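INFO worker-7 received task bundle
INFO bundle size: 2
INFO processing item 0
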Amino acid sequence: MRSLSSNQLGIQLVKEYGHLPLVECYAGQLNQVFMNLLANAIDALEEYDKERSPQEIYFCRSTIRIRTEVTDNEFVTIRIGDTGPGMTEEVRDRLFDPFFTTKPVGRGTGLGLSISQEIIVSKHGGQITCISAPGQGTEFMIKIPMRSHPLELTLAVPSCFG
């Protein structure tokens, strides 16, 4: 029997996309938010897998799950979750603080989640929340209105999720 390393298994990506209508949004800025959340999830899972045995990784593969849906007939909800180590309440309480990072020196600026919150809340009139506990993974939930009031918004096709 050949043993597998965590590098050979990689991170599993599960996409559960609901049927979404066109959404008025700043598509480039939303993509920046999604890329930041995905990069953070990948970093957390890679670090977590360094602490796990090949057997643990094989039987409980690191996974990122992306789900989209329409909620309340007015909002699009995007959930990006991972099966990583999760985080404490103290860390969760500071996630959106500028310059706060859990990454080693030289690996993060601590601005990604602060900027993401600004884009979701101020630019789109939405919400971003984090659900996490030690040993339970992490999920970010983004909720944005399908229609926004500013006329300068561009129409984005939900295919940016896939």
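INFO item 0 finished
INFO processing item 1
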Amino acid sequence: MAVAIRLSRGGAKKRPYYRIVVADERAPRDGKYLEQIGIYNPMLPKDDEGRVKLDEDRARHWLSVGAKPSDRVLRFLDAAGVMERAARNNPKKGEPGEAAKERAEEKAAKEAEAAEAAKAAEEEAKNAPEPEATNEDSNENTATGSVKSDDTAEAVADAAEGETKDGDTADDKAAIAEEIAEGGVPNEQADDTASEKAEG
């Protein structure tokens, strides 16, 4: 008969309480057992002495006659110094699945594309001319043009005042100013010049 040292569950719903028992491997988990050699109460904190109670002498006896402990009981025996538990290594336990790997690859590819786009934008910004200097030049040119236009307007007004006579109406003065602005000679002055040439 194969004998095992394992846990037998008791207690209420969501409040487990385990017995450490020696039982036939073919028996049900919570069925009949040969001997109870300890208790395990997971509801108590880990540093509590009453969390695991084990009869070490009876455990050694059953181990000597060929009883095989379960993994959880083997942990208790290792902590008590009764039996050494070999360290286990499962490198694939924390490895993500295929879908998670695909998502990680897609995320890495998107991040790489975003980084490349940012670098390209920075290079374009460095190679592009500075817009501030252009704005300043255009402002200076605009200011100079406005000054020149103001000077021209003042000169035309002064010339119009000099060419007009006291008897001229406002319409005559406006016409003379337009002719001077266009670079022409007022009609009256042209008539006077023509009469002088005829007399001479």
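INFO item 1 finished
INFO post-check item 1: Strands lie at 3-12, 15-24, 35-40, 52-54, 68-69.
INFO post-check item 1: The longest helix spans residues 131-163.
INFO worker-7 idle
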